[in-house]
Amino acid sequence: MTAKEEFIQIYNENITRHGAKELLEWIGKTDFFTAPASTKFHCACENGLVMHSVSVYHTLMEKHFDEETDSKESFAICALLHDLCKAQFYKVSTRNVKNDETGQWEKVPFYAIEDSFPFGHGEKSVFLIERFMRLRLDEAMAIRWHMGGFDDGNGMYVSKAYDRYPLAVKLHLADLESTYLREKGTSAVRN
After folding, report:
1. Which of the 8 DSSP states describes residue 73?
2. Are 82 and 143 within 8 A, CB to CB?
């Protein structure tokens, strides 16, 4: 099963609220299923964004899901859609790199950022989701603050969000583990 197929299966099995179908249709019209998750760090390859989203879902469910207090739908929404802001965000470009063996300069592909809607990171994902489907407050907070201290320096706000919304802490931890521990070796541009 491809990462795209797994994403769609998890999405359809767990996300049933009003607007979910329309959101998934919109996602399918973007480059979400082919885009990288980053320019050079984790999953910086074709399909990297969907691979990362599925990885975060599995990490979040395996490490943090509590049947008594958590919602499968909320976990699926947060994990699968936390980086929706990266759809239509990257483009393949080229740069000149010197070949160490031949001494010749060669054009090599790389991912560049081309953000036509600079609305921030987590807040942009929340905004895009909310165009189709209402989020619960804890889901919006989790998605907004999933970057933790790697975001825009609002330490006081992230601390308050984490204190009030355990789902935000759980998504941040799953995102970190997926990015830095589970997704090693997925950072090459592939055509």
Report:
1. H
2. yes
- Which parts of 61-181 are beta strand (E)? 90-98, 105-113
Q: For residue range 80-114, what is the model confidence (pLDDT) as tens digits? A: 999 999 999 999 888 999 899 999 999 988 888 88
Put residue 109 in one of left, alpha, beta given phi > 0 → left and psi -120 to 50 → alpha.
beta
Torsional sign, CA 13, 15, 21, 25: negative
Indicate the SS3 state at residue 48.
helix
Q: How far apart are CA 191 and CA 182, in angstroms?
A: 23
- With H, G, I as helix, E, B as strand and everything else as coil, classify residue 104: coil
The one-character DSSP state at 80 is H
Would the pLDDT of 157 be above 70?
Answer: no
Q: Which DSSP letter does residue 88 get?
A: T
Asked whether the CA dihedral 6, 8, 9, 14 is positive or negative, the reply is positive
Structure tokens at 189: 């541009």
